[in-house]
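Quick one: Response regulator from Rhodococcus daqingensis, structure tokens please.
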Amino acid sequence: MIRVVVADDHAAIRSGLALILGSADDIEVVGEAADGEVALRQARALRPDVVLMDIRMPGTDGIAATREITAAGLAHVLVLTTFDIDEYVFGALQAGAAGFLLKSATAAELTAAVRAVAAGDGVLAPQVTRTLIDAFAAGRPTPPPQPTGVSELTDREREVLDCLGDGLTNQQIAGRLFIGETTVKTHVSRVLTKLGVSSRVQAAIIARELAGS
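--- reply ---
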């Protein structure tokens, strides 16, 4: 059973999301939060698999809460966004969000995204990730220094990193590299550790920056 906390400052939206997720046989909504501070407290107390996080909330916003949750390894964070590429989305990327979901997503897309993030796949739609990564990278005033961990990657891990940069899921990486999904998960975990990042989206940003350097 996938345990989820839903964080959104709009009660109607929060209830609707919880209702949709709760209707899935393999998903249980264990908590709801109206702001980031409550979401963080619930993540600590309930240890959900996924926190569905709105980034624009009063008080402690979703970005600050995401940073705390991912840094402590409390849960994967799936960010809700209207998909206007701005500093809020960039901040969520930097904070370690595992994936992004449009607020206009259908019920099927919502449940699929939660399942994907819980399984270790960072995003629902690869094209969304590519757009976010490209916009993020293009907005940098100067090229960032290359992470020291890049030189520690094996050839296979570098191939996996390149796949992450293309926004591929674990299943798609397995197909491209002709390896099993379990092996992909192991490689992704090692890549994140060596690069010192908490999410595959952050790793994807590094891959795109390396490709453009």
